[in-house]
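Transmembrane protein, Elysia marginata. Tokens?
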Amino acid sequence: MIFDSFRNSKQRHIGYLKRRGKKIVVLVVLIVVHVVAAVEIVVVVVVVVVVVVVVVVVVVVVVVKVVVVVVVVIVVVVVVWRHGLVVDARLLDREVSCSSPALGFYMKESCAINTMYQFKKRFDTFMLSLTFRKM
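Tokens:
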């Protein structure tokens, strides 16, 4: 009888330990699940931040390239205009008059050659001025 009560008490104790062990295992599993979820949230936030930074860098690079191209075009136009490389209205008028049907063939040729010569002379002057400026 005494032995039976001890045995029952022991089995109850073992059952308690098993139930308590299950509770500890469940508690450990819950802690692990929460830690994994927290790590996943941190990873997702880091990935989103990296993607946003990359997109911002790409947009900035594209905008800078466009601005540089626009500035270069503006500088080239200003330099060309300032040095008189743009064909002025007189040369355009001369080209229009060169294509006039009233001129004979040889006159048209002479007119066109003269217009090209004027343009080449302006271009050579411009290149020469750049050469002297570098010196």
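The helical segments are 2-82, 89-98, 105-134.
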